[in-house]
Design goal:
about 120 residues
């Protein structure tokens, strides 16, 4: 995906089984755990493009979070702070070929960043 595309949406949930049933019934999403990402079932919309994950709700994660694909997380986080935002989570590895980070915009919205390619074994 090109720089700036929304690539993933995480939805915080308290009851994973209930959430899987709810979203698959409501929207027809295919939801399954992928080897290597146990405990984090991924959802895919019927268009086979939109997708994300169902993640455990936590104190700092109470609202859905979109992830934007970028060419460089390091460069993007530098721009975030230059433009008045705040880094909430520094760049961290997802796999050997992909990374993520989270920032807060000047209005207090948490937005995720994604860089790389995630091999899901498919």
């Amino acid at each position: 995906m090109p720089h700036g595309d929304i690539t993933h949406i995480d939805i915080p949930v308290s009851d994973m089984d209930k959430a899987q049933t709810f979203y698959s019934t409501l929207f027809g999403w295919q939801i399954a755990e992928i080897p290597g990402y146990e405990g984090y079932p991924m959802w895919q919309a019927p268009n086979k493009i939109s997708g994300g994950g169902l993640a455990p709700r936590s104190e700092g994660f109470t609202q859905p979070r979109s992830y934007v694909e970028v060419d460089s997380i390091d460069d993007t986080l530098a721009k975030v702070t230059e433009q008045g935002g705040k880094v909430l989570m520094e760049k961290g590895a997802i796999s050997d070929t992909s990374w993520w980070a989270i920032f807060e915009d000047p209005d207090g919205n948490a937005v995720g960043l994604y860089e790389g390619v995630t091999d899901t074994g498919e």
